[in-house]
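Subject: design request, 449 residues
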């Protein structure tokens, strides 16, 4: 199918929507990027009674068609998102493309008067992220980022406990993704190949450099041109909780080590990496990603799908471990001694010594999982009406994304970088500053980049 016939093809329709909401209350939503996460977003947007999915867009026709099969109503299919932005009946767009497309689509959507739900990481580089914040504010648009853990009740409760001082003053936080891959072959070294039927490769590449089609490239997370490995994928979610709980969002310094040490394949990005950030308030934060061993710093090997991952905040009174499955507050134990007689001192039948005992400095607490994604979508829909900032507002998502992006700049320069959060520039490296933005491939342009 050529590109022209792909534009504005009448939709696949399923059963009519049955929600009893007045027609003029309906909110027209379009999904741009109908891959794995786009379809997860679609599922929860469809559950909102006010929402009507009016358009689906993907540069790969089979993915748009797969999403269309999920529809409970009617929508038109597109391969060029700009046709969606022209539609008056689309109030909001969901941007679930690979990362390198998020900024341009989100900013143009703001300019077209649409509200935006954009997946994390919000951008491919730091400067783009700032431009997204500015566009949302300039055009008075609601822009929610897909950092859905903020909408999970158990995340909210754990963060409240930290803010209440339950684990004391936190000087060290760690987060990690440790996975296990039985083979180091990864995605291999495939040859360039003819563009598959139904894929608009030029539009997939968009502002990224033009290259021949290669199937490995669609694993976009593994290539610097489109993303930044696990650090800009999972770590955005994890660092976001550190920022939220500890009321920080801008590190002072960043260093990183590691590289492509396990996989023998064509990826660019690190598979084994550690990042260390220093934050105001004497806070040290570290992130690690592994693919050869799934054991985590919390002492668990993790589950099958995600390996071991999570966030651990270590405070003067206790430790919080949290992931999507629940959380645990583990008290810091303090040792006490009481006076013992000479006789009892000689009767050493206790390894700690007689008269010694331990008390916890805080209450233990444990919780299981809560819904995160569905309430996050609900919060966005509520904000479309109230015009309030959503819980994952673009400024928040920008800080969580930028923190990860500068980690990769530290890895690639090999420098300990000092970050000027107000200027969003490094204080000590011209080389690193060059990596805060990039040239767009013509004809794509982004004003202010
Ligand atoms: N919030 C979360 O928990 C979460 C989870 C997974 C992925 N994500 C994010 O969602 C985004 C998509 O990830 P994915 O796993 O679904 O990837 P994917 O490759 O499965 O899907 C991306 C889709 O976008 C399409 N696409 C590419 N360029 C496009 C364009 N210009 N216009 C329209 N469609 C285009 C691709 O053809 C593909 O179908 C990423 O940014 C990722 O970080 C978020």
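Subject: RE: design request

Done. Sequence follows.
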């Amino acid at each position: 199918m050529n590109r022209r016939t792909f534009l504005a093809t009448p939709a696949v329709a399923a059963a009519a929507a049955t929600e009893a909401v007045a027609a003029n209350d309906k909110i027209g939503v379009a999904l741009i990027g109908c891959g794995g996460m786009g379809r997860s977003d679609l599922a929860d947007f469809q559950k909102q009674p006010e929402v009507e999915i009016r358009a689906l867009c993907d540069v790969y026709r089979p993915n748009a068609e797969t999403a269309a099969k999920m529809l409970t109503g009617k929508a038109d299919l597109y391969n060029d998102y700009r046709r969606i932005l022209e539609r008056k009946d689309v109030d909001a767009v969901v941007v679930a493309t690979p990362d390198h497309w998020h900024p341009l689509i989100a900013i143009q959507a703001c300019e077209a008067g649409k509200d935006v739900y954009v997946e994390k990481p919000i951008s491919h580089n730091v400067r783009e992220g700032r431009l997204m914040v500015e566009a949302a504010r300039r055009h008075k648009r609601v822009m929610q980022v897909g950092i859905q853990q903020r909408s999970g009740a158990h995340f909210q409760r754990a963060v409240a406990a930290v803010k209440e001082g339950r684990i004391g003053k936190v000087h060290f936080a760690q987060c990690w993704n440790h996975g296990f891959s039985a083979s180091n072959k990864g995605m291999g070294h495939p040859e360039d190949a003819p563009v598959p039927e139904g894929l608009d490769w030029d539009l997939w590449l968009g502002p990224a450099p033009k290259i021949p089609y290669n199937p490995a490239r669609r694993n976009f997370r593994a290539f610097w041109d489109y993303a930044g490995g696990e650090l800009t994928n999972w770590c955005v979610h994890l660092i976001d909780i550190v920022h939220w709980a500890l009321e920080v969002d801008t590190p002072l310094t960043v260093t990183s080590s590691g590289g492509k040490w396990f996989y023998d394949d064509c990826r660019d990005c690190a598979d084994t990496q550690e990042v260390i950030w220093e934050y105001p308030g004497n806070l040290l934060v570290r992130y690690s990603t592994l693919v050869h061993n799934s054991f985590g710093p919390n002492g668990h090997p993790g589950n099958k799908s995600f390996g071991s991952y999570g966030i651990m905040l270590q405070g003067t009174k206790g430790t919080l471990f949290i992931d999507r499955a629940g959380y645990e507050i583990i008290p810091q134990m303090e040792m006490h001694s009481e006076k013992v007689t000479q006789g009892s001192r000689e009767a050493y039948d206790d390894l700690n010594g007689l008269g010694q005992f331990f008390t916890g400095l805080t209450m233990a607490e444990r919780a299981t999982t809560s819904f995160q994604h569905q309430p996050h979508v609900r919060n966005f829909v509520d904000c479309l009406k109230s015009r309030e900032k959503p819980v994952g507002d673009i400024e928040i998502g920008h800080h969580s994304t930028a923190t990860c992006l500068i980690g990769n700049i530290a890895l690639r320069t090999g420098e300990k970088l000092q970050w000027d959060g107000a200027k969003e520039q490094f204080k000590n490296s011209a080389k690193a500053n060059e990596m805060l933005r990039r040239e767009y491939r013509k004809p794509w342009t982004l004003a202010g980049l």
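Residues 1-23 have pLDDT under 50 and may be disordered.
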